Amino acid sequence: MEITPDMAVYWRFGPAVLNRTIVLTWLVMVLLVGASWLVTRRMVAHGDILAGVRVPRWQTVLEATVLAALGQAREILNADAGRLMPFLTTLFLFIAVSNLVGSIPGFDAPTGSLSTTVALALCVFVLVPAHGIMRVGFRAYLRNYLQPTALMLPLNVFAELSRTMALAVRLFGNVMSGRMMGAILLVIAPLFVPVPMLALGLLLGMVQAYIFAVLAAVYIAAGIETESQH
Amino acid sequence: MDSLTIIAASSIIAAGLAIGLGAIGPGIGEGHALGRALNSLAQQPDEAGTITRTLFVGMAMVESTAIYAFVVTMILLFANPYWNYFLSKVGG
């Protein structure tokens, strides 16, 4: 049984390997970019609506998504919501669409591969200090690691590393466990029993995407909060 | 028993123990967290958004230990490095 979609290799050229994860990641990216392009091609502004132009259906979906994301980001991040929301919403949409793609028979979720989730977690890992330094400056951010005393330096650094690892392993484990349960159920009780598991998988996929985005936001916000106490 | 059988049997037993014990703690913890969150929701329905979000984040934290146990189990069962090493030795 394949644990990750990394193991299905389509094409190999020396050290370069084209595996299932990469193909499906690009599929999700094409899906997201294509959908955004299609929706934003013919937008209707507020003035047009007053003039009686009908709002396209998908623009409503897009606006609802963006407004919901902005509301959530404002609650967690306060002042920085506008600047960080694009990153967090992209994270959420990518993971959500990946997990939904994984529910289609014959496809796998790209997030079921440890390489994808580690890449996503590394984005957050880089953004936390980058955003902290942009906000308060280099020295003030580094001093943050010496709180409450200089003895805590190794623990603070370790906390930063371990929560990045936890972020990656959590998403990978959740998606992989869903896949394995589906595969095992398919073997022992085919046809009808895996269907409720698939339905549950749809819900869990969205919850995992939400949790990843919210945790990223909380980590970034925590980085700022400790500095503003100075 | 030859060493291959011992490795296979101990991997399977260890996998069962890992997932079983690893599910107990997070199960109890998530139950406590959910109970307290429901209490708070009943007392302050206005704060539903904040309570639910904090509950999700906390549950994700609690759950990660269960996920670690699961990943270890999966490695023991399907990607066991010792098992693969001995198979390559025996099978040639």
Structure in words:
The complex is a heterodimer of chains A (230) and B (92). With 230 residues, chain A is mainly alpha-helical. Chain A has one domain (5-229). Chain A is built from 8 helices and 2 strands, in the order ββαααααααα. A two-stranded antiparallel ribbon of chain A has the order 1-2. In chain A, a hairpin with a 2-residue loop joins strand 1 (9-13) and strand 2 (16-19). In chain B, helix 1 packs antiparallel against helix 2. By secondary structure, chain B is an all-alpha fold. Chain B has helices at 3-43, 48-78, 81-91. The mean pLDDT of chain B is 87.
Task: Describe the SSE topology.
The complex is a heterodimer of chains A (230) and B (92).
Chain A: E1 9-13, E2 16-19, H1 20-41, H2 46-50, H3 57-77, H4 81-102, H5 114-136, H6 138-143, H7 153-188, H8 194-228
Antiparallel strand pairs in A: 1-2
Chain B: H1 3-43, H2 48-78, H3 81-91
Pfam family, one (chain A): ATP-synt_A
Keywords (chain A): ATP synthesis, Cell membrane, CF(0), Hydrogen ion transport, Ion transport, Membrane, Transmembrane, Transmembrane helix, Transport
Membrane topology (chain A): Multi-pass membrane protein
